[in-house]
Amino acid sequence: MPRPSCPRCQRPLRHCLCALIPDLDSRTRVLILQHPSEVGHALNTARLAALGLRNAELRVGEVFDDLPQLLAQPGYRACLLFPGEDAVALTGYAPEEQPLLLVVPDGTWRKARKLLHLNPLLAALPRVSLGAVAPSRYRLRKAPEEGALSAIEAIVAALDALEAPQGFDALLRPFDVLIEGQIAAMGEEVFIRNHQR
């Protein structure tokens, strides 16, 4: 029989994270497009980000037929948070600058690229990237390359860059607790053997 889970954060009730999820406002609108393979993942960080930000939306799928409507948000300039040669590093807003609709693909690098391939409108968006970032706190997954972050960490870094001096670190509280809980569940020895290299 499946363990009862929280309908909001989708964690087992005994490990509900809702009390740690903040309620943050942002000028930037965040649209997270999540590959279906991420939905059942124990560390669904995109969901935590969407729950903690008032101006965020999480959509799940491979092909988004309503993408034109999602991208045409009045008062926002749509851009894609994804590395590339033509990607511009995010910096703070100028005083009168129109805020961004920050589109964040969520999945492995392969799945994220697939989302771009299947949704040409996404691939056509101007790309933005993060400047120098702290190493990932996601100690349970080996980063495929230097500077790779989980979805929630990338969103926090982007918002911190755009909306300084406002900070968005509170979004990472449930993420940190989730990681610690996973490490505790596997045992310190197993964690050190499999993840500390």
- In the CATH hierarchy, the architecture is 3-Layer(aba) Sandwich
If you compute it from the alpha carbons, what radius of gyration comes out, rounded to the nearest whole angstrom? 17 Å
Portion in beta strands: 5-15%
Tally of individual helices:
7
The name of the CATH topology is: Alpha/beta knot
Low-pLDDT residue intervals, each spanning 5 or more residues: none
Q: Please give the order of strands in the largest beta sheet.
A: 2-1-5-3-6-4
Which percent range fits the helix content? 25-40%
How many separate structural domains?
A: 1
* Rough outline: globular
Number of strands: 6
EC number: 2.5.1.25
Domain DTW: 2-187
Family: Belongs to the TDD superfamily. DTWD2 family.
Enzyme class: transferase
Question: How are the elements arranged and paired?
Answer:
Layout: E1 29-34, H1 45-52, E2 56-60, H2 67-71, E3 77-81, E4 88-89, E5 100-106, H3 109-118, H4 120-123, E6 127-129, H5 151-163, H6 172-186, H7 188-195
Parallel strand pairs: 1-2, 1-5, 3-5, 3-6, 4-6
Helix pairs in contact: 1-5
EC number: 2.5.1.25
Domain DTW: 2-187
Family: Belongs to the TDD superfamily. DTWD2 family.
Task: Please give a structural write-up.
This protein is an alpha/beta fold and about 200 residues long. It has a single domain (about 25-195), classed as Alpha/beta knot (3-Layer(aba) Sandwich). It contains seven helices and six strands; from the N terminus they run βαβαβββααβααα. It has helices spanning about 45-50, 65-70, 110-120, 120-125, 150-165, 170-185, 190-195; strands at about 30-35, 55-60, 75-80, 90, 100-105, 125-130. A six-stranded parallel β-sheet has the order 2-1-5-3-6-4. Strand 1 (about 30-35), helix 1 and strand 2 form a beta-alpha-beta unit. Helix 1 packs parallel to helix 5 (about 150-165). The longest helix has 15 residues, at about 170-185. The N and C termini lie far apart (about 35 Å). The mean pLDDT is about 85.
